[in-house]
């Protein structure tokens, strides 16, 4: 009786222990979270999504290939610039205009002491005297011939000499007029080099005391001054052969330079070369750009974006793409899991990154309407 009671009591105790242990197992099973994410997925809570600044977008039809991007260089507008050379050989005695100065057409730039000036006016005087002598001789031979006191041969010789003297006089007068245009002084043999156009002295390549070679002296003349206006400049770009079919005269362009990375300059195409460079297989494209504040400088390198007719194809944001080794991947939003965590699955895709800037055509791996990560994809790739 007593043993039975003990056994019964023991059975009750064991039963209570089993029930208690079973209760613990149930509670642990209820408190355990969902399974771990697969190797190619990332699961995030709402707070983690907010902290990582994850943003989503749909795969949709976008306008891509709307720009052709190439390189270029800032250049003068040739119609608004003058390269000034010296017409005489001599020595610079004084500089009148310094770089940065604004000058009017005809304003003095430099004073050149040159023997060419004296020679020119000396030739003019000699030609004038020779012409007068030839004219007198011709008149005399005419009188003698008409009086039958002179030979026809002498008259013809006098006529030939007069023609030669007149031609020499014209040559000497034109040369002297060229020097007079530069305010040459026959006494001091000084020549004043003057500005051929209104504008700003952009460059000066000579100093007082320097010897200069004249354009008409038979040597190699050096550019002494560059005068022009920079309120409008050209951008000379190179368009590849495969892009020429898209580019049109009058198309708007956007210019960026290294000196001002956060600023773009607007312009338009006003000329496309009709021939390709045989080495680079590119055609020169000239863009006219407003430069009222003179920010752009000639010889600056530039990135030129040319607007072209866009094609509408399924595309994704360039920011959605992550390069992982040799693979191009995006993260696709797979909805919310039990427990409130968002599911993001890595997917290998193929895109055409030769077209478009903001959006790239998708060629494989995604369907229209799928939601993908457009901001924060780099962070997700680091969590795999």
Give a brief rundown of this model.
It is built from five helices and 24 strands. The chain is of the alpha+beta class. Strands 4-13-16-15-14-17 form a six-stranded antiparallel beta barrel.
Could you please describe the fold and organization of this structure?
- The protein is of the alpha+beta class and 384 residues long.
- The protein folds into 3 domains: 95 residues, conserved putative lor/sdh protein from methanococcus maripaludis s2 fold (Beta Barrel); 94 residues, Elongation Factor Tu (Ef-tu), domain 3; 145 residues, OB fold (Dihydrolipoamide Acetyltransferase, E2P) (Beta Barrel), CATH 2.40.50.
- It is 27% helix and 37% strand.
- The chain contains 5 helices and 24 strands.
- The protein has a 6-stranded antiparallel beta barrel. A 4-stranded antiparallel sheet has the order 1-21-20-19. Strands 3-18-23-22 form a 4-stranded antiparallel sheet, with no helix packed on it.
Jot down its keywords.
single chain; 384 residues; alpha+beta; conserved putative lor/sdh protein from methanococcus maripaludis s2 fold; Elongation Factor Tu (Ef-tu), domain 3; OB fold (Dihydrolipoamide Acetyltransferase, E2P); 3 domains; six-stranded antiparallel β-barrel; four-stranded antiparallel β-sheet; 5 helices; 37% strand; elongated
* Main beta sheet strand tally, sense and closure: 6 strands, antiparallel, barrel
What is the beta-strand fraction?
35-45%
CATH architecture of the largest domain: Beta Barrel
Label the structural class.
alpha+beta
Low-pLDDT parts are 1-33
End-to-end distance: 68 Å
Shape: elongated
Radius of gyration: 44 Å
CATH class of the largest domain: Mainly Beta
CATH topology of the largest domain: OB fold (Dihydrolipoamide Acetyltransferase, E2P)
Order of helices and strands: HEHEEEEEEEHHEEEEEEEEEEEEEEEEH
Instruction: Give the tally of β-strands.
Output: 24
The side-by-side strand order for the widest beta sheet comes to 4-13-16-15-14-17
- CATH H-level homologous superfamily name of the largest domain: RNA polymerase II/Efflux pump adaptor protein, barrel-sandwich hybrid domain
Helix content: 25-40%
Q: Return the domain count.
A: 3
- Mean pLDDT rating: 83
Q: So how many helices?
A: 5
């Amino acid at each position: 009786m007593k043993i039975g009671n003990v056994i019964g009591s023991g059975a009750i105790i064991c039963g209570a222990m089993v029930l208690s242990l079973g209760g613990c197992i149930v509670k642990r099973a209820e408190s355990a979270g969902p399974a771990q994410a697969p190797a190619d997925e990332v699961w995030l809570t709402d707070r983690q999504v907010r902290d990582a600044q994850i943003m989503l977008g749909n795969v949709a039809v976008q306008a891509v290939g709307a720009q052709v991007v190439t390189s270029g260089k800032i250049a003068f507008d040739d119609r608004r610039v003058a390269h000034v050379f010296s017409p005489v050989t001599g020595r610079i005695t004084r500089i009148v205009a310094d770089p940065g100065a604004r000058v009017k057409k005809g304003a003095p730039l430099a004073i050149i002491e040159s023997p060419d000036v004296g020679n020119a006016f000396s030739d003019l005087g000699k030609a004038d005297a020779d012409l007068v002598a030839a004219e007198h001789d011709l008149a005399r031979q005419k009188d003698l011939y008409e009086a039958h006191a002179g030979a026809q041969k002498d008259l013809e010789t006098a006529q030939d000499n007069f023609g030669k003297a007149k031609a020499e006089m014209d040559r000497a007068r034109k040369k002297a007029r060229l020097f007079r245009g530069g305010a040459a002084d026959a006494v001091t043999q000084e020549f004043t080099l003057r500005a051929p156009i209104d504008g700003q002295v952009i460059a000066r390549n000579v100093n007082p005391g320097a010897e200069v070679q004249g354009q008409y002296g038979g040597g190699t003349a050096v550019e002494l001054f560059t005068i022009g206006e920079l309120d409008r400049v050209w951008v000379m770009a190179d368009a590849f052969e495969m892009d020429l079919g898209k580019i049109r005269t009058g198309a708007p362009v956007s210019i960026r330079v290294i000196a001002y990375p956060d600023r773009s300059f607007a312009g338009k195409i006003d000329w496309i070369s009709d021939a390709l460079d045989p080495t680079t297989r590119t055609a020169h494209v000239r863009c006219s750009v407003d430069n009222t504040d003179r920010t752009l400088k000639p010889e600056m390198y530039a990135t030129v974006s040319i607007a072209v007719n866009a094609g509408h194809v399924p595309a994704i944001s360039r920011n959605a793409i992550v390069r992982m080794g040799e693979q191009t991947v995006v993260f696709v939003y797979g909805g919310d899991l039990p427990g409130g965590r968002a599911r993001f699955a890595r997917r290998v895709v193929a895109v055409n990154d030769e077209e478009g800037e903001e959006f790239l055509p998708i060629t494989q791996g995604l369907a229209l309407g799928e939601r993908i990560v457009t901001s924060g994809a780099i962070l997700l790739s680091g969590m795999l």
